[in-house]
Design a protein that fits this description.
Blueprint (H helix, E strand, L loop, with lengths): L2 H16 L3 H8 L3 E11 L2 E11 L7 E2 L2 E4 L4 H17 L5 E8 L14 E4 L2 E4 L6 H11 L9 E3 L2 H4 L6 E2 L20 E3 L8 H9 L3 E3 L1 H4 L1 H16 L8 H19 L5 H8 L4 H24 L1
Parallel strand pairs: 3-5, 4-5, 9-10, 10-11
Antiparallel strand pairs: 1-2, 2-5, 6-7, 7-8
Helix pairs in contact: 1-3, 8-11
Length: about 300
């Protein structure tokens, strides 16, 4: 079953659960537009011809939002499925974007890419494992220097990347490619919780198996919605040509000074320099973005729980 078929199956299950009219569900699932492009590029003195796709699943709200997938094995159906996931993700996060996705058929490891998980770090050249815990900073440094995890001194190395998915652990975070957990390995998964940081890392068949086994899955459509949420913040910021916090930061600082002065007068005690710095500090743009992201995802979670109840 392709990623696109798996996404449609999961949407079928969801629309059936909420009693949506089947014809309406078909309209929602249909991909509005897909285009393919082939283009040449000179790489290290040699001309290569690359193939790419761009899919707009839904333009009911604009702009249509979606990232680019660079992978040696992708196709049109996969890109359509990822575009559909983006539509549903935006809807769940209440972001006014349609869903889209682009893909380029290319081996990124000939150029540059990385990906990290928890007690085992899986990369294109294999997996490094340390049951006692890996120093992630050191692993990243090693990857930056060598291009992979092979030879990392802080853990044992194996070329069998997929075997690491079957390790006994509390949390498994597939964070790179789609369909890595499938019907062929779902019965061997030993994690208690799966967090779908990648797009579509668990196939429809595997999802059924894992749910029947009582393994909790946090779905990608919610877990990695932070990217599109912050992208929306960035979009609104660029439209206004004004950074977040510019209007209220100084006001917040003055109000903080007022609160602190009142507290010192009431208590007869003076705050330390560090306390004063903390209490009167106005929110930075990063503070506001993180606060908005946290609030948005909490709101989504509350809405999801309300629907389930």
């Amino acid at each position: 079953m392709s990623l696109r078929e798996g996404v449609d199956r999961m949407v079928d299950r969801a629309t059936l659960a909420i009693g949506l009219d089947p014809d309406t569900a078909k309209v929602i699932q249909a991909c509005n537009m897909v285009s393919q492009i082939k283009f040449p590029a000179k790489v290290r003195g040699k001309v290569e011809v690359f193939t790419g796709w761009w899919a707009i699943h839904s333009a009911h709200r604009l702009p249509a939002k979606g990232g680019l997938r660079f992978a040696p094995v992708i196709n049109q159906e996969e890109i359509e499925g990822l575009a559909a996931l983006m539509s549903y993700k935006c809807a769940i996060a209440d972001i006014p974007f349609g869903g889209a996705k682009g893909g380029l058929l290319i081996n990124p490891y000939n150029y540059e890419e990385d990906d990290i998980t928890v007690i085992a770090v899986i990369e294109h050249d294999g997996v490094v494992i340390n049951e006692g815990g890996l120093n992630i900073h050191d692993v990243r440094q090693h990857m930056a220097e060598t291009g992979g995890v092979k030879g990392f001194p802080g853990g044992s190395y194996s070329e069998d990347r997929d075997e690491a998915l079957l390790m006994e652990c509390d949390i498994l975070i597939p964070a790179a490619l789609e369909s890595k957990i499938h019907a062929g390995n779902a019965m061997q998964i030993q994690a208690k919780l799966i967090v779908e940081a990648a797009n579509g890392p668990v196939t429809y068949e595997a999802d059924e198996i894992l749910r029947n086994r009582g393994i909790t899955i946090l779905p990608d459509i919610y877990v990695n919605a932070g990217g599109v949420t912050v992208s929306y913040f960035e979009w609104t910021r660029n439209l206004s040509h004004m950074r977040f916090g510019r209007l209220q930061r100084r006001y917040d600082e003055l109000r903080g000074h007022g609160y602190l002065d009142t507290l010192e007068q009431l208590t007869g005690q003076r705050a330390s320099d560090q306390q004063r710095k903390t209490l009167v500090r106005g929110a930075s743009e990063l503070d506001l973005v993180r606060s908005g992201l946290y609030g948005s995802l909490c709101h989504c979670h509350h809405q999801d729980c309300t629907v389930l109840l």
